[in-house]
Amino acid sequence: MLKTNLSILAVVIGCLGVFTWVANAIPQIQSDVPEDLVLSDDVSPEELIAAGEELYNGGGGCTACHGLGERAPNLLTDHAGTGLIGERCANRVAGEDCKQYLHTSMVDPNAYLVEGFAPIMLDASRTLSSVQIWALVAYLQSLGGEVTVTGADFADDGGAAAAGGVVASAPAAPVLGPTGPLDPEELLTRHTCATCHAVTGQSPLGPSYEGMGSRLTADEIRTSILDPTASAAEGFEEMLGIMPPIFGNIPAAELEAIVQFIASQR
Amino acid sequence: MRPGVEITSERNVPKPGMTWRSGAGPILLLGALALLVMAEPAFAQVPAGRDYGDFPVIGGRAAVWIAAQVHLLFAAFVLGVPMFAVVTEAIGMFGGDERYDKLSKEFTRLLLVAYSATAIWGGILLFLLVTIYPTLFSYLAQIFNLSMWIYVGLFFFESFTLYLYYYGWDRWKKGRAKWFHWGLGIALNVWGTIVMFIANGWLTYMMSPPADVTVDTAPQMVQLWSALTNATWMPINIHRLIANVVFGGAVVGAYAAYRFLAAKSDEERAHYDWMGYVGNMIAIGALIVLPFAGYWLGREIYEFNQQMGITMMGGFMSWLWIIQAFLIGVLFLAGNYYLWVGMGRIPGAERFMPYTKYMLAVLIVGVIVWATPNTMIASREEFAAMGGTHHPFLSVLGLMSGKNTAVNFMILTTFLSFLLYRRANKEPVVPWARTGTIVQGAIFVVASAIVLFYGIYGYMVPTIVRIGFSVYQVLTVLACIIGVITIDLLMLRGATSRGEIQWGRMPERSQYALFILAVTFTWLMGLMGFARSGIRQHWHVFEVIRDTSPWAATPALGYSSVVISACVLIFFGLVAFIFWLGSLAEKPVISSVGQASAAGGIQSELQPAPSEG
């Protein structure tokens, strides 16, 4: 029986060995994460091109479609006799220069669909930051054309070009937690809470936040915001139903900042 | 698309204390582990820097990966086996053949010992998730809390239904009690299926969240039903249901093969030969319809997000499908080999043996086409020699149209093998037997022509249309299978026998084919699990929650294959151990197939032998 057991073990190990060997013998391609870009607002064209090229061939995932010329135009070579992308971009749409055309093609990819290709590309801003998109534009411009992207484009595009530099990551990155300090009072104004609720003193319509933290827990405050019809504060029973149930739209981090702020009002 | 977010929903708004007053105490007690985490709002109370934990040596991701994969393998086994255990029990009940009842009980015995391993690995997975991905788990728990409670409740019911089903086997053996017992088997399947559907909702949400769930959507705002019933939920459900049967059949086949090789008597050998045959037929039979669900899933992925589909089929994962083709090639070859060798124990089968070489040729050509890559990673000189980035001839075969056509021909060929095996020792007596055979042949020809037509036409249409063609091709093959088997069933009614199947008279090498099938199925499950999970790339929840862990990059196939092999090794090591433990406690009942066969053989297949009546 020992011989049988060893034979079975050899078959199992042999199968696993062959499968593992085959999987290691093929080209090894890892799907990289688009790396955060740290660019100063006086970034040089060379830096932009280098960043764009890395994204194009790596984490940007561009080559899945644009590298072959089947699913999407091949941007690295000539397309239908119109030249490289850096050459042809300025001639694609009347009134749009190369930079505008390339940028629009990424954030609104169906705007200028190239003939013969299906509208399969999604808005690049869903996964890439403004800076990353501009770096890609610069790289594509460099392929046969002149790079006109500058650090000013980030600022124009709302890229938060703070003095000294821009740290850009994909827009979704902060979801796992608030990445910066939030001003609760500013949020109360922005989300129109302050229209009815005062932080201190008499409120215009609803209960004041003053002392609310000593009466309600953070959970109860959150519930009251998300489901304002669930209960009414003492003395405001007749107001039940006036507060609209629309505050679920508030981004989670901002909602939590508001909740914690109100809970701290004791 | 159903809305995934509701502005205000009582269901989504946590009301302190409500859950503990709403009854279902035992269920909540069972879900205490999950509650520990779910009670915490994700964003406010998870300290910064604790988004991810770690695990020594192999890292957090690999630890969770292995736990999830091994848990899933055991879960697939305990979900797949009850499906055919109930069917074989029904065959025994309605056909009056007690062998099937005993076989069903033996299936269930395997189930019993595997069940606790499933729960243990589920617990390991839960703890690893909570400690390594606490923020992500908390996010998911806030969305799926209710379904998690239902999940553990059903797990409770499932466990005790299984105990009743197995331990009540001999007590509820006759009359109405037997119906009750069979009902328990059905209930076991119902609980298990719902449990799987719920868990599938969690993982498919991560893959294809509703369109209106965005980066800014608070988890409390995501509607539970909408999150569960996302775009890829039902395709995954169906795909896994079928795949579980395939997997269960393969593992049962491997178990039977081991017992065959270890058998000390002819009776035992005959019994386990028969059991291995049944396990293999279940696995291969279900495998044939599995591509339907696979194509549907692929189509839904493309419709959910074209880029995700492209990443899966043509992006960094494109080479994965070459490996898949290789593995399925192994499955088809091993499965057919087992059938062809098995024909050696059937009198009359020799008249079909000359055809096997042609079938082998079709299978090999099919595997070669299927394993042809579309694009080549090559040097500049090689590109120049090819005249471009694509090989002038081979790249044509590498497109989905060529691959689908190849695999459908492989399915048709395997079905033909089964048909010849089934018919080997039978002589039809109906007057229209010749006409029936001609019609069957015509169905094969027409089906092949349709498959070929769509295969060629697929080169002339866009990708999204081409994917749709794959459904037509598989539907054609399924129609062929149903049509031909229906004719066969009618035609072989009352058929005379050319001789009885000599169960147990099977060369030992055939049993190793069953081991290869089981290991390959298991490895394939690991690979496809990596594909399903990996197409999210650096997202925990696709385009909603980004993976910012040190392991966010999706690894290449080489590394993945090592992890998958480790999972398969762990699984089979544990399976061997718990089956051995099971054998210590109770000796299996050797059915009459063994005794009869040893005494001269009997004729038997999945249904009671027609020639005997």
Tell me the strand order in the biggest sheet of chain A: 1-2
The CATH class of the largest domain in chain A is Mainly Alpha
Main sheet summary of chain A? 2 strands, antiparallel
> CATH topology of the largest domain in chain A, anyone?
Cytochrome Bc1 Complex, Chain D, domain 2
What is the CATH-assigned architecture of the largest domain in chain A? Orthogonal Bundle
Q: Percentage of helical residues of chain A?
A: 25-40%
Calculate the mean pLDDT score of chain B and round it: 83
Output the keywords.
heterodimer, A: 266 residues, mainly alpha, Cytochrome Bc1 Complex, Chain D, domain 2, two-stranded antiparallel sheet, 11 helices, 2% strand, B: 613 residues, two-stranded antiparallel ribbon, 22 helices, 70% helix, disordered N terminus, disordered C terminus
Give a written overview of the molecule:
The complex is a heterodimer of chains A (266) and B (613). With 266 residues, chain A is mostly helical. Chain A is built from eleven helices and two strands, in the order αβααααααβαααα. Chain A has two domains: 37-172, Cytochrome Bc1 Complex, Chain D, domain 2 (Orthogonal Bundle), CATH 1.10.760; 184-263, Cytochrome c-like domain (Cytochrome Bc1 Complex, Chain D, domain 2, Orthogonal Bundle). In chain A, helix 5 (98-107) packs across helix 6. Residues 159-180 of chain A have low confidence and may be disordered. With 613 residues, chain B is mainly alpha-helical. Chain B has a domain at 353-423 and 426-497. In chain B, 70% of the residues lie in helices and 1% in strands. Chain B has a two-stranded antiparallel ribbon with strand order 1-2. Chain B has a two-stranded antiparallel ribbon with strand order 3-4. In chain B, helix 10 packs antiparallel against helix 20 and helix 11 crosses helix 12 (306-313). At the A-B interface, helix 1, helix 10 and helix 11 of A face helix 4, helix 7, helix 10, helix 12 and helix 13 of B.
